[in-house]
Each structure stands twice: as C-alpha cells, then as structure tokens.
Amino acid sequence: MIYRGRSVTNEDIALIRRWIQERPHLSRWKLSRELCEVWQWKQANGALRDMLCRGLLLQLHRTGEIELPPIKRTVRNRIAERGRPEHVAIEERPFAGSFSELPPLEFVQVRRTSEEALFHSLLEQHHYLGYERPVGEHLKYLVKARGQAIACLAWSSAPRHLKLRDRYLGWSDQARERNVHLLAYNTRFLILPWIRVPHLASHILGRMGKIVSEDWQRIYAHPIYWLETFVDTSRFAGTCYRAANWIEIGVTQGRGHRAPTFEQTRPVKKMLGLPLHRRYREILCA
Fold first, then answer.
1. CA distance 260 to 269
2. Domain identity same for 138 and 229
3. CA nearest to 191, candidates 114, 105, 86, 276
4. 20 to 30 A from 93, CA-CA: which of 62, 165, 178, 207?
C-alpha cells in the first residue's frame, strides 16, 4: 500500500507486528515515534513525522493487519475544542493616498510570536472567509507601516493533488509525491478595510515572493520554488496577482474535492501560480 507518499511493504508490516510483540509495554505514541526513528520518517527540519505514522498504524489496525496495544489514556483534542479567535482591539488609523505617500513597509512573520493573536483576530473580523487554522507547514505575516498593521497574509503547505497545477507543471506522480513540499499555498490575503492605496496589493505580493522561500528555509529547512492560490471569480478578478507577475493557470469547475456529482456546488475559482526560480520545472519534476 501507499500511505502519504510512503510505500508500505509486507516486510514493513511484519516489522511492526514484531515490534509490538517484543515491546508490549510501549504506548501507541511511543511506538509511532520509535518507528519514525527506524524508518527515518522525518521532516526536512529533523522533526519526526509522528502524526503521519500514527495515522498509518491506526489504518493498519482497522484493516486487521496489526493489533495495536490498548489505549492507555484519552488525550483531549484541544484543537477541535478551540473556539473562534478572540477579538484583539487595535487603533484603526485610516490612510488613503498614493503609494508614494505610504511609509516604508515592514514584513513580520508572526507565527509563534506575541502578535499571532492579532493576526488571527484581523482575519476573523475582516476577511470574508474568516480565520482558518492551517494544517502542516505554514507561515503568517503582518505587513506594517510605521508599526501599524495594514495587511495580513497566510501561507501553508500546498494541496497534494490539484489537476490544474499538476497539468501545468507537467510532473509525474512520483515527482509530485517527492516534491510537493516545495510548494506553498496563499490561503489568505487581506488589506485592512481602512487602508486605501492603489497598487498596494500587487506590491505586497511582489515583495512576498522574495521573502517566503527564505523564511521557509529558516523554519522548515527547505526552500519554496512555487507559490499558488485560488481567486473566487464571483468576488475578485485577481488583478493584483497578475500585476505581481503571477500566472493564470486555469479555472476550476466549482465541484470541490471528491465531489459526488458533476454538478457545480461551489463558486468557480481562478488558479494562479508564481515560480520562484528560473529552473522551477526542472527542480520540481526531478
């Protein structure tokens, strides 16, 4: 079987059975971590892929391939229990004028910092989709002018399967499984409603293209070679992305992932991408 890009053989399953038999005292948590060490199943920054391994073990357990030890304690899912972001009050200082009148911009990566709560609050209050907790690798940015937050951008791991993008890049299934972590997905982009500056959005996107890969390398120990996003065509035209040299890849059919019918159930969206390296296709298709 193939699980999240890893081939799981009969020998692997036999190893897991033997591991469980020889170490009956191990909890499921400890078992998955030891298997990650044996398989060297790690992220680029050295962190164990513990949650993926536990998902594999649970799938094998449910299909009867292995017998996991009993659950020793129930751990609360604090992520599922977490409510919507709390409101963080800030001073709203309206600004309307030309781009040349705007103070110099500062791009601040706020994940795991004291300003992360402000980032969550601004998206929850002012973005039409609200704040959504990301899964996997992700970064969060506040764009500031003289210390005042004027924009928010969220980036996360790219979806593993996107027909429009996969066709455009021309990579094989094997190359996609190996290299999809080298892509980042722009999940949220917000300029606060009291900021009115022509060309500000395209300028921010252009600057971000030079920042994201370096920060990803610093935090996750690998670069980013391709950025992508979707634009809801019922609300936006995607002009600021195209002005920042993003490429229009195509238009979705509005059916969503694994739709049960061929009828449109969601808004049609335009997909755009931005290569961050002149040899991006060669690298991603390797």
1. 19
2. yes
3. 105
4. 207
Q: Where are the alpha helices (DSSP H) in 107-150?
A: 116-126
Specify the number of domains making up the chain.
Answer: 2
Instruction: Summarize pLDDT for 58-93 with one digit per residue, the tens.
Output: 999 999 999 998 887 666 655 555 678 888 988 899
Range of the domain at 120: 85-284
- Asked if 266 and 260 touch (Cβ cutoff 8 Å), the reply is no
Calculate the dihedral angle through the C-alpha atoms of 8, 11, 14, 16, rounding to the nearest 10 degrees. Answer: -50
25: number of Cβ within 10 Å: 6
Q: Tell me the CATH number at 226.
A: 3.40.630.30
| 272 close to 229: Cβ distance less than 8 angstroms | yes
Instruction: Determine the 3-state secondary structure of 6 from DSSP.
Output: strand
In angstroms, how far is CA 242 from the centroid of its own chain?
22
Tracing tokens 């030891």 back to the chain, one arrives at 34
Burial class (CB in 10 A: 0-12, 13-18, 19+), 258: exposed
pLDDT in tens, 3-41: 876 788 999 899 889 988 888 888 888 888 988 898 888
Q: With b meaning 16 or more CB within 10 Å and e meaning fewer, what string describes 113-143?
A: eebeebbbbbbbbebeeebeebeebbbbbbb
Nearest C-alpha neighbor of 34 from the set 63, 9, 54: 54
Taking Cα atoms as reference points, which of 150, 28, 32 lies closest to residue 91?
A: 150
